[in-house]
């Protein structure tokens, strides 16, 4: 049986998350909660970048 591998995310107090990593053999050891949060933040950043690019296109054309 494989060992229980925990998420490597630390909170602001420096305490490590104790949830199980989504993929224990992956380079990035992260639980489902933190993976979802990362995906949400990436999506928001992409939306902001897309809006900014659209504004630049409109101002130049």
TrEMBL record:
Identification of the protein by name: DUF1540 domain-containing protein
Natural source organism: Streptomyces prunicolor
């Amino acid at each position: 049986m494989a060992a229980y591998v925990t998420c490597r995310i630390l909170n602001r107090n420096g305490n490590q998350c104790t949830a199980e990593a989504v993929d224990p053999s992956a380079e990035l050891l992260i639980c489902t909660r933190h993976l979802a949060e990362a995906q949400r933040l990436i999506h928001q950043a992409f939306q902001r970048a897309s809006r900014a690019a659209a504004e630049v296109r409109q101002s130049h054309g």
